[in-house]
Amino acid sequence: MKETAEPPPALGAALTPRKRRAVTERFFQLLFFTCAAVSVLTTAGIVITLLGETIQFFGEVPVLDFLTGTRWTPLFASQHFGVLPLVNGTIAVALVAISVAVPVGLLTAIFLSEYASVRLRSVVKPILEVLAGIPTVVYGYFALLFVTPILRGVFPQTQIFNVASAGIVMGFMILPMMASISEDALRAVPRDLREGAYALGATRLEVVTRVVVPGALSGVLAAVILSVSRAIGETMIVAIAAGLQPRMGFDLLSSMETMTAYIVQVSLGDTPQDTIEFSTIFAVGTLLFVMTFVMNVLSDFFVRRYREAYE
Questions:
Q1: What is the Cα–Cα distance from 282 to 270, expressed in whole angstroms?
Q2: 126 and 43 inside one domain
Q3: Residue 171's CB: how many other CB atoms inside 10 A?
Q4: In the structure, what pLDDT confidence band is assigned to residue 225 with cuts at 50, 70 and 90?
Q5: CB 98 within 8 A of CB 227
Q6: Are 163 and 99 in contact (CB under 8 A)?
Q7: Does residue 76 form part of some domain?
Q8: How sure is the predictor about 38, in pLDDT bands with cuts at 50, 70 and 90?
Q9: Is residue 78 situated within a structural domain?
Q10: Which residues are CB-contacts of 202 (< 8 A; sequence separation ≥ 6)?
Q11: Mean pLDDT across the stretch 104-113?
């Protein structure tokens, strides 16, 4: 009697469990590699875009004049391309923001990590993280319409657009980043160190200041540097509240222009492309990119240099 041929097994059935696992692992490996490659290529594309226009700009303006000049009037008839006034305004706003974010954020992290109960932490931390979800344009108008009138009531000489109000509000904007990273660093300190300090008779404050914070120093420093980097790159708050007056000095009650605010000013204006005025935004953007890149490298250095290894 003639035998009937059996149909071939399905593809899924032909694969053994071991082979299926290998195919799945290979698929996710390629997926993860693709995501990483997209990130790298995006960064490379940004750098190439910046460098192309920046090289064209420095073909007409000497690099030394750009980096050391104290007058910035590229949109005026009498053009000067000294970027120091923009750098000065950027640093002034960032210093005010950090003076708010670092102490408040660190103390908040210490409270959440060492003092707050689990129930209280579950309430406070989400409320704190709401600050990170507020659009920066809202922060800008909050600084202009709420904080500035308060400053003018205390210091009548305060200008409507000023560094102090923009920096204070920016400090609260970056507060969640500072507090969250610092809390993670504090909670990573092994509990055995805390219990050992308590066993020696230390108070809770002594444990925090002499054991926990020194043990989490690398993470806290990384949080500070990343917060500074975030403050330097902020745009809408300074564009709305800090003003558009490039100037030297650190009069926090007066108007100053930051690097990001200038980029917004030119990008939204009537400046034609393929002109020296338009190329200035790429030169300023490249300098801003270098500054933030250096801050991130410093953050990585401090994490590696002061990291405590616990076994």
A1: 16
A2: no
A3: 24
A4: confident
A5: yes
A6: no
A7: no
A8: very high
A9: no
A10: 210, 211
A11: 91
pLDDT band at 1 (very low <50, low <70, confident <90, very high): very low
- Helix/strand/coil for 72: strand
**Residue 23: what residue type?**
V
Residues 224 and 187 grouped into a single domain = yes
Consecutive H or E run containing 33:
helix 17-58
User: Would you say residue 5 has pLDDT above 60?
Assistant: no
User: Which amino acid, one-letter code, is at 165?
Assistant: S
Q: Please provide the size of the chain in residues.
A: 311
Cβ 234 vs Cβ 96: under 8 Å:
no
- Tell whether 52 and 151 lie within a shared domain: no
Is residue 49 located within the same domain as residue 159? no
Residue 156: partners with Cβ closer than 8 Å, 6 or more residues away: none
Q: Do 172 and 255 fall into the same domain?
A: yes
Range of the domain at 15: 11-59
- Find out whether 103 and 118 touch, Cβ atoms under 8 Å: no
Residue 3 above 90 pLDDT?
no
Q: What is the pTM of this model?
A: 0.82
Average pLDDT over residues 144-170: 92
Distance set, CA 66 to CA 59, 280, 288 (Å): 12, 10, 13
Rounded distance between C-alpha atoms, residue 36 and residue 44, angstroms = 12
Of the pLDDT bands very low, low, confident and very high (cuts 50, 70, 90), residue 10 is low
Domain membership of residue 277 (yes or no) is yes
User: Are 97 and 135 in a shared domain?
Assistant: yes
Lowest mean pLDDT across 73-77, 80-84, 246-250, 286-290: 73-77
Asked if residue 1 belongs to a domain, the reply is: no
Residues 106-130 as b/e (b if ≥16 CB within 10 A, e otherwise) read bebbbbbbbebeeeeeeeebeebee
